[in-house]
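Two folds, back to back.
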Amino acid sequence: MTIIVAGSLYIQPGKRDEFMACSNAAILLARANPECEDFAVSVDPVNEFRVNVFEKWQTRSALEAFRNSGPENDSFAWITQFDINEYEIES
């Protein structure tokens, strides 16, 4: 099974660059996991408050372990809205 997590986050005005800098630790941690096939957080080229998220995991257990061990910082407080979806794909 493959798990895809995809969507967008909306960040408080003036905090997007700081949010992106804080995201680097999570990106590196996820990509170091052998069951993480892709993990990306990127600024939206049109909307200055939007950040796009894409994750691809081999197993739900790896995704959940990552979520429970991610780096702690204040960046989640800067999220004003989100639209994130998970998809399970059977091979």
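---
second:
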Amino acid sequence: MSETALPRTPLLSAIDVHAHVIVPSVYDVTKPHSLFARAEADPSLSPEQKAAVVARNGDVVRRMADVTERITAMDRMGVAVQVLSASLVHQCSYFAEAAESLAIERRNNDAIAALVRGAPSRFAGLGGVPLHAPDLAAAELERCVGELGLAGVQISSRVRDKEIGDPTLRPFWAKAEALGAVVYVHPAGNPDPRLAPYMMWNSLGQSIEETFAIASLFYDGILDAYPNLRICISHGGGYMPYYTGRIERNYIEKPATRKNMSKPPADYLRMLHYDTCVYDPRALASLVETVGTERVLLGSDYPVGDPRPVDFIQDAAFLSAEQKSAILAGNATRLYGIDPGPAPTGDTP
């Protein structure tokens, strides 16, 4: 169903923590290194298929850059506030050396902060960091929070050949905990050639990446070293929250798997937060049951994801009114420090 055919107009009170933007001057630099560039160049596509992919990507990029269209869509969806973050499948900087990556991310962060300042009742923001240079990443995280007023940063599910729990990245995690900053984990794409056909890098690969990211956080000891981290995982946490049985079995029967862990895997899952961009009420029900209502936040993946994110929660018969209120706004208010207020003021950038 398209956004323009929503069955009702919900109240403008929700906080959407999964909403992407493009900064055109950044995308000009990062596009050749992005998964979408590879998808557009896929040799298995017919000329007609390639044209369709290019056209759709062009429309997505346009919508991510169009603030007026964004606010109109938010009003239709019933979203009071979006937490803006870069589309990492378009403009991740990890390909660049440290100094260039930092320059790319600073340009992105300044632009997102400007969007937030332009419509403070409608937007909050997350910056980006050169995660492969952890000391620079920690410093830029501090600038994002302290100077730019952003809620935290977004990182990819891995950085080059390292998982996000790699010991070399601990300066970043230490700074994030010290600042109380939100770290939103969202993949920049999965480059496995097995996932290239049929755009499975997106349909399957993104969730694989999120699963690896969560595993790294507890297997590599990050959640024990920094137990007060404020981490949110995109797309409902990938496959991890829905397949805990086998992971728990390994924890019990294979001691080598728990050398950096002080508790069972399921306990670590309840230390993280997750957005609701799972597209299936059965998945949402399982997520809530596994991690608890207080760990689940509304997320649409705007502009490519769920066009009815608020209705998706409102229509969930297995959720109480209190649970719906928490997922739609209360949990984000607590985690991000956002108050959606009674209704948007009509700010425009």
